[in-house]
Amino acid sequence: MKKDESWIETCCEESLCLLRPPSSAEFVDNLEFIQPNVISGIPIYRVMDRQGNIINPSQDPQLSKETVLNFYQKMTMLNTMDRILYESQRQGRISFYMTNYGEEGTHVGSAAALDPTDLVFGQYREAGVLMYRGFPLDLFMAQCYANADDLGKGRQMPVHYGSRDLNFVTISSPLATQIPQAAGAAYAVKRENANRAVICYFGEGAASEGDAHAGFNFSATLECPLIFFCRNNGYAISTPTNEQYRGDGIAARGPGYGMLSIRVDGNDVFAVYNATKEARRRAVAENQPFLIEAMTYRIGHHSTSDDSSAYRSVDEVNYWDKQDHPISRLRHYMTARGWWSEDDERTWRKQSRKTVMEAFEKAERRLKPNPELMFTDVYEEMTPNLNKQREALWRHVQQYKEHYPLDLYDK
Ligand SMILES: Cc1ncc(C[n+]2csc(CCOP(=O)(O)OP(=O)(O)O)c2C)c(N)n1
To answer: How far apart are the C-alpha atoms of 31 and 29, rounded to whole Å?
Structure first.
């Protein structure tokens, strides 16, 4: 039977057509593909230039001296912690580490714009968000050293932090799993009408995972109060952005999902702060997701398992380290206002290093968790197979006692 399609035009005219999405699309009679560059060149929102000058006074967030000093102290403390834990791994004291060098502005600017009750889903390179929320150095160290004070009971690889008290969901390694989880959590938050938002951090590499699509689409269609925060730092391990995607980065994808989107200079802590604050306000007030793409640069190696000199030049890294660094930019801003001097810098560097070293030495001295904890917390009652494994473990440890210094473990 030949299909009669004359009804399509009639019902479209009557706005009853279910065959196309609700849009103002018209029918045309010329065959033309949409050029991808129609949505390219999304501008980068910036408040401060590289010398720390405010470009347009109307965009100055006018934060107090105390707040700005706190930003700076958190950004530099993160840097110091990174240096010491990175070195610890090189010396074989911990098994693994990931630094946050160069991305400090994205962490602190976004964290400061949130409410402490907002729920955070991180990827793994957002330690500054947790630090801004008040996670103590002792707990960062306890996690990386997997000692008896670790909230995760020593079960995770280093940098897989989590804190129920600080509304920071525990990091998991498989890329992008946090994205649909954040969409689900934001949907729950909306149903509770709790005046809360959810923020979900991810790298531009993770945005290539199928889970990113699922999370974006669910949150847009379910109208969830969620801020997707992409840290576009130029690389996914050795894959540079020009091999990662075609099209205009991650921000360009937002409109395709019906999401409000913005690209910001991630090395400008005030631009990140303003964009996140406004996205957070509107996400909660209007129940809809927002996408922020923060342009930044990963100055460190991907992790301690990577050597980035194999795929990028020293000159490239030096450029970002010396010419366009979020910390130096903020420092210029503070210095210009007479809020920070060379003396302040020297004193703070010394003091922050001392504080980090104390936490590090304490973590190293602390006992490891009781090995029994490997078997608990999944099931309310130990299952027979787990019990068998547990007995086998202790038999093995007894047999090869000389290799297992049990006095270093919590009883
Ligand atoms: C599903 C999955 N595939 C691959 C990996 C290995 N992997 C770990 S990090 C990473 C790169 C991620 O890059 P990006 O999301 O841009 O974040 P960045 O490390 O640059 O902060 C890859 C491929 C993984 N952890 N999970």
So the answer is: 7
Q: Which atom of ligand 1 is nearest to the CA of 303?
A: 19
d(CA 393, CA 391): 5
Spatial neighbors of 42 by CB under 8 A, at least 6 apart, are 248, 249, 251, 252, 261, 263, 293
DSSP secondary structure of 32-73: -PPPGGGG-----B-SB-TTS-BS-GGG-----HHHHHHHHH
CA of 236 to the centre of ligand 1 (A): 6
The number of residues making up the chain comes to: 411
pTM of the model: 0.94
Q: What is the pLDDT of residues 238-292, one digit of tens each?
A: 999 999 999 999 999 999 999 999 999 999 999 999 999 999 999 999 999 999 9
Q: Which of 227, 230, 295, 279 is nearest to 44 (CA)?
A: 295
204 is catalytic: no
Give the three-state DSSP class for 388. Answer: helix
Is the CB–ligand 1 distance for residue 162 below 6 Å?
no
Q: Which two tokens stand for residue 186?
A: 């934001």
345 is catalytic: no
Q: Where are the alpha helices (DSSP H) in 193-229?
A: 210-221
CB-CB contact of 288 with 282 (8 Å): yes
Residues 150-198: tens digit of each pLDDT: 999 999 999 999 999 999 999 999 999 999 999 999 999 999 999 999 9
| Nearest partner of 25 among 14, 12, 36, judged by Cα | 12
Ligand 1 pocket residue status of 237, Cβ below 6 Å: yes
Tell me, in angstroms, the distance from the centre of ligand 1 to residue 123's CA. Answer: 9
**Does residue 206 line the site of ligand 1, with CB under 6 A?**
yes
All domains of the chain, ordered by start, with CATH? 57-365 (3.40.50.970), 371-408 (no CATH)
Nearest 10 degrees: Cα torsion 212, 198, 201, 348: 180
Residue 201: strand pairing partners: 229
Report d(CA 314, CA 337) in Å as an integer: 34
